[in-house]
Amino acid sequence: MFDNLKIVWHQGKQFIPDVVAEVVPGIFRGRPIISLAKVNEDKLVELCPTGAISKAPCSINLGKCTFCGECAIQFPEKIAFTKDNKLSTNQLDRLIIKEGEDSPIVLNPAKIRAEIRKTFGNSLKLRSVSAGGDNSCEWELTASNNVQFDMSRFGIDFVASPRHADGIVITGPITENMAEPLQRCYNAIPEPKIIILAGTDAISGGIFADSPAIDRSFLSKYPVDLYIAGNPVHPLTFINGVLELTRSKYMKK
Amino acid sequence: MKYLTIHNNQTVNIKDIPVFTYREFLEENIVLLKGQAKKHCVNYFGVNDNLQIKLYCCIADDDTHEIFINSSIINIADSIPSLSAQNHNFEKFEREIHENFGIKYTDHPWLKPMRYANNRANKQLGIADYPFYKADSEELHEVGVGPIHAGIIEPGHFRFICNGEQILHLEIQLGYQHRGIEQLFLQKTKLLERATLAENIAGDTTVGHTSAFSNLWESLCDVSSDKSLQFSRTLALELERIAIHTGDLAAICADIGYQLGNSVFGRLRTPIVNFFQEWGGNRLAKGLIRPGKINYPFTKELAQRLKEIFIAYERDFNEMADKFFSLPSVLSRLEKTGIVSYEEALEIGTVGMVARTCGLNRDIRSSHPSNLYGDLFNHEPIIKHQGDVYSRVKLREEEIQQSILYCKKLLENIPEFNKAENTEIKPGNDKFTLSLIEGWRGEICHCAITDEQGNLKAYKIKDPSHHNWMALAQSVRNNEISDFPVCNKSFNLSYSGHDL
What we know:
The complex is a heterodimer. By secondary structure, chain A is α/β, with parallel strands linked by helices. Chain A is built from 8 helices and 11 strands. In chain B, helix 2 (91-101) links the parallel strand 7 and strand 8 (104-105). In chain B, helix 6 (227-255) packs antiparallel against helix 13, helix 6 (227-255) packs antiparallel against helix 15 and helix 7 (259-280) packs antiparallel against helix 8 (300-324). Chain B is globular. Chains A and B meet through helix 1, helix 3, strand 7, helix 5 and helix 6 of A and helix 3, helix 4, helix 7, helix 8 and helix 16 of B.
């Protein structure tokens, strides 16, 4: 009994009090800033392993970016990754960061379905489906509910059955072999329900985008409510993204 | 000689690998492995060569640190005897050859599709058509679990045949995670694309697979890696081991309903993965290990920081582990649960952590060392003999402590880091390279073959899970089905690493 209390005491306070203001320690490759400096843009485009960089105007599509940071290493005068970990939106083109821009990534309020905030504003139960995910995003989703990030303080949890869930979180590029199980899982979730794509692989297919072994037809059938960029998604990015979608007080102005 | 002898990370000319008739090839490799615990097959695969299939078999000798390679050419239409009929080490390798090329084996004991790969020979049947083993009896029932599981984990289907609560048989069907990685390695020709693929093979073993790829690529291109790269790979491998083992201990606690352990071990993983964040900007070390360079030098400040992290970590970890292993209610769930015997481990060809808990000493860090292993320290693998869940949990605790010692040793002498430069490196023509790395799960093997222009002709990846999934299926026999989760977690095998 007392040695249990001693162990608890020794842990100190582990939880992050304010997940919105928290800054990730060390190096974090968050929302990039692209300067107006003149560089060889063809080389820059050629460098990116997933074709996330475009030229004229120079831009990075965070839905395709693997956040390897190679572009910022090779072209430090052009590209810098900031520590801004808020990388979620509900409209794909808002993940495209153009040169000269330095403003937060925000959701389009007009595209948030009315029932989402009304129904899920205080409680949200999610079902995770890894559809070709490499287990990195899955580790980070699990970490979102550990004692540090403690997502369940907001009433947001992962549940074991789609029948208990309000929405689905998809990780991975959606393999051909997972296309049907994913569809069945989605069908088993009662209405109203939301779809969240977590991580670059889920949003665009990432490095697997042109593999013949993936089947992304599921995504053309239903509206996606939230895209959360990252490789893998950082727990803070995930929690903040879901809060912004479901609660108006967390919406960035 | 009936084979070519090489060492880990050695590049050889394809023409120097002896080619035999299939019968000689079969006999030679069966004889090589017969009654030998110190030898095992690290890779066996086929490469398509003008309507013929060239088979390469790579057998590692843990005593002499050598790897024996030979080859044989067969026709796609051939019906041939299998190696698996005589040695079950080859079971999955031959299933893969059968699936990808349609080679017919006349006497393979378990010739089922492996992963329903996109490039499989028979596209008529899909993953929903898998032929499960069946037992018809009014006494027995089947339990199907997955592909989507209750937790936040990867997909795979488990089919149990049970007598009441007791598991008689478990069949594990995989393939749901197949993304066609080996094909993409050939399709994508930029080095950064391939490095990105390597780090996505299994995201929980990012360092393991990127190190195997980087060691292989440098050897294939005939460039040497300097001390700083080897230092980084060795340190990162040990840190990855500490991080994942700690997370696994937390997950084991969750599966037996021990909340305190779950919370404490769960939070202790954070400082280690956050250290990866501080070093290279990613909690799972993506972007850190690259062939020929490292973008994030390891500084004196980082070393100081890691020492501080270890001081805090060790105090809390040891306190929690001592408590955990002293609780009768914990031990009663772990001891004698999910046993794999030494004989089974040997027959299956089990590798890595799982082999070491069955008294089978398989650890690439000591048997085929690369990077700073065998150089800076002579690794002594930790061996357990019971082969139960307890052994696999206890091994993790002891390996964490061992890895911390290794990291501290590495920190005593930090090499100079040069500025990262992208040099154009190109593979040689008609070459074969094999690279072995001990990831936290066990032996990772990457093989590459180039054509006459130096382009990649084949890239083969083998995650330790390739062998060890069968050990999990065997371990749960005669256990209660309620013990399956803790058994499964004690193995913690990779779905994506298997499915590729």
